[in-house]
Amino acid sequence: MRAQIARRTLRTDRWWLPPLVTFGGLLLISIYAAVRTFMGDYYWVDEHRYLTPMYSPCLSQECLPGAAHFGRPLPEFPGFLTPPVIIIPFLLGFRLTCYYYRKAYYRAAWLSPPACAVAEPHAKYTGETRFPLVMQNLHRYFFYAASLLLLINVYDAFYALSAGVGLGNLVLLVNVGLLAAYTLSCHSCRHIAGGRLKHFSKHPVRYWTWTQISKLNARHMQLAWASLIFVCVTDLYIALVASGTITDLRFVN
Question: What pTM was estimated for this model as a whole?
Answer without folding.
Answer: 0.92
